[in-house]
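Propose amino acids for all 304 sites.
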C-alpha cells in the first residue's frame, strides 16, 4: 500500500532544526508529548463540562470588536472562557498555561517563526480554539480543505482584495459520512481554483490529541505541501487535491497518543473521515497567529 502514517515514518529529532525543516518542507510537524497527562486530563474534564450546553465545538468566541477586553487581555479571555465551564481552579490553571505558554512554544518550535514573548516578532495570538469530538461509529466526514480559505476571506491585509467575499462553495462537511459528487476520485477543481489567501500575518493550527488517533477513528489526514503535481506552480496556479485517490496515494494520517500535537500551516490541505471505532475520538484544536489577525472593515460591516 502507498498509504503512510506518522506512526511508521521516521521520528522527528528532538532538536528544533529537524522539526523546522519538516514544517518548511511539508507544511506540518509532530511534537510528541507536547502536553503532560495532567494537562490532557484538564482538557478532557473541561470538554465534558461543556458538552451538554455546547451548540458547536467552539469553546469561547469573544465579540468581533477589536476593543473587547477578551481580545486584548489573556486574563479577560480566560474569565470569558470560564463562564461556560465548571472545572476547578487547578484544572483551569493547567489549561491557561497550555493555551498561552506550552502550545505557542510548540508552534514556535515547529515553524521556527519565533518564541512566544521572546521580543521582536514573537507575538503569538490565540485566534480560535475548539474541541473536535467524533462519537463512536459516527462523526462528520471533513472534506479536503485549507483553513486559510475558510478564515482569511474576512482578514485585514490579504494580498488579494478581490477575494474578500466568503467563497460560496465552502461547505466542507459531509455529516452523513458520504462525500458529495466529485469528491470520490477526481480533482476538486472548482473549490480550489485559486491560490491560497495570505494575510499580513501567518497563522497555524495546533491539533492536540486528547485520545489516541488513527485512521480507524477518523484522524486528521494531511497532504504534504511538496507533493508532486499538487504544489502550486510558478505561474500562480493553485494546488488541487484529489478525493479518495489522492488520500490513498499521498495522504499522511496523523497517528497520535494523548498529549501529542500536530502543528500545520493554514494553507495545507487536510481531511478526516468518520470514526469507525467503538470509542470517541477527542482532540483540542487551537489556532495561533504571529501577531494580531484583524477583521477587515468590510467583513465587520457584513456582520452588523
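Proposal:
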Amino acid at each position: 500500500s502507498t498509504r503512510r502514517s506518522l506512526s511508521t515514518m521516521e521520528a522527528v529529532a528532538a532538536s528544533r532544526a529537524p522539526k523546522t525543516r519538516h514544517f518548511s518542507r511539508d507544511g506540518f510537524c509532530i511534537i510528541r508529548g507536547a502536553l503532560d497527562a495532567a494537562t490532557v486530563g484538564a482538557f478532557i474534564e473541561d470538554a465534558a463540562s461543556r458538552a451538554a450546553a455546547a451548540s458547536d465545538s467552539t469553546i469561547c468566541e469573544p465579540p468581533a470588536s477589536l476593543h473587547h477586553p477578551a481580545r486584548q487581555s489573556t486574563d479577560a479571555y480566560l474569565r470569558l472562557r470560564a463562564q461556560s465551564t465548571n472545572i476547578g481552579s487547578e484544572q483551569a490553571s493547567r489549561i491557561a498555561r497550555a493555551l498561552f505558554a506550552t502550545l505557542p512554544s510548540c508552534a514556535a518550535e515547529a515553524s521556527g517563526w519565533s518564541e512566544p514573548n521572546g521580543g521582536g516578532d514573537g507575538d503569538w495570538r490565540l485566534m480560535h480554539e475548539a474541541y473536535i469530538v467524533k462519537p463512536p461509529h459516527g462523526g462528520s466526514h471533513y472534506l479536503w480543505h485549507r483553513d486559510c480559505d475558510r478564515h482569511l476571506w474576512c482578514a485585514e491585509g490579504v494580498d488579494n482584495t478581490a477575494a474578500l467575499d466568503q467563497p460560496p462553495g465552502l461547505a466542507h462537511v459531509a455529516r452523513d459520512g458520504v462525500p458529495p459528487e466529485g469528491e470520490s476520485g477526481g480533482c476538486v477543481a472548482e473549490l480550489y481554483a485559486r491560490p491560497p489567501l495570505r494575510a499580513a500575518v501567518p497563522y497555524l493550527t495546533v491539533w492536540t490529541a486528547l485520545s489516541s488517533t488513527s485512521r480507524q477513528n477518523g484522524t486528521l489526514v494531511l497532504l504534504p505541501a511538496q507533493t508532486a503535481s499538487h504544489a502550486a506552480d510558478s505561474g500562480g496556479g493553485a494546488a488541487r487535491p484529489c478525493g479518495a485517490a489522492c488520500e490513498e496515494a499521498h495522504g499522511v494520517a496523523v497517528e497520535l497518543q494523548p498529549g501529542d500535537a500536530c502543528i500545520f500551516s493554514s494553507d495545507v490541505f487536510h481531511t478526516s473521515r468518520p470514526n469507525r471505532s467503538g470509542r470517541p475520538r477527542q482532540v483540542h484544536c487551537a489556532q495561533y497567529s504571529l501577531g494580531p489577525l484583524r477583521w477587515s472593515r468590510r467583513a465587520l460591516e457584513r456582520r452588523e
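The longest helix spans residues 89-111. The helical segments are 16-26, 37-51, 74-82, 89-111, 147-151, 244-250, 297-303.
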